[in-house]
UniProtKB/TrEMBL annotation:
<feature type="domain" description="DUF559">
    <location>
        <begin position="3"/>
        <end position="107"/>
    </location>
</feature>
<dbReference type="Pfam" id="PF04480">
    <property type="entry name" value="DUF559"/>
</dbReference>
<dbReference type="InterPro" id="IPR011335">
    <property type="entry name" value="Restrct_endonuc-II-like"/>
</dbReference>
<protein>
    <submittedName>
        <fullName>DUF559 domain-containing protein</fullName>
    </submittedName>
</protein>
<dbReference type="InterPro" id="IPR047216">
    <property type="entry name" value="Endonuclease_DUF559_bact"/>
</dbReference>
<dbReference type="InterPro" id="IPR007569">
    <property type="entry name" value="DUF559"/>
</dbReference>
Length: 114
């Protein structure tokens, strides 16, 4: 799983790279995020371990019925590990990054007691 996470870090999407520039180094109000972090049998896009929050970045392929089923199973497993999962679309990151960051910040603050 660690090898897969390392590989995914090398092949990041444009939206993931853009979001990572503002999440890395605890730049979001001091909240530390990890990129391509293993949880159970999955590697998640971003994880804030302190708040037990996962941020998944979804592209156009996540709209198909098969991908929605796969994402639902993935979310179920990650939530069973105690994490909340939020999904952000590539276009949202591209078009409304400030709004995306506000949503993520609200989620981590809301999970701070976990």
């Amino acid at each position: 799983m660690v090898n897969r996470a390392t590989s995914l870090r090398r092949t990041t999407t444009g939206a993931e790279a853009k979001l990572w520039t503002v999440l890395r180094g605890a730049r979001l109000n001091g909240w530390k995020f990890r990129r391509q972090h293993p949880i159970d049998r999955f590697v998640v896009d971003f994880a804030c371990l302190k708040a037990k929050l996962v941020v998944e970045v979804d592209g156009a392929t996540h709209g198909s019925p098969a991908e929605r089923d796969r994402d639902a199973e993935r979310t179920r497993v990650i939530e069973a590990a105690g994490f909340q999962v939020i999904r952000i679309g590539n276009t949202d990151i591209r078009d409304t990054l400030d709004g995306v960051l506000q949503s993520i910040l609200a989620a981590v603050v809301g999970r701070d007691h976990v």
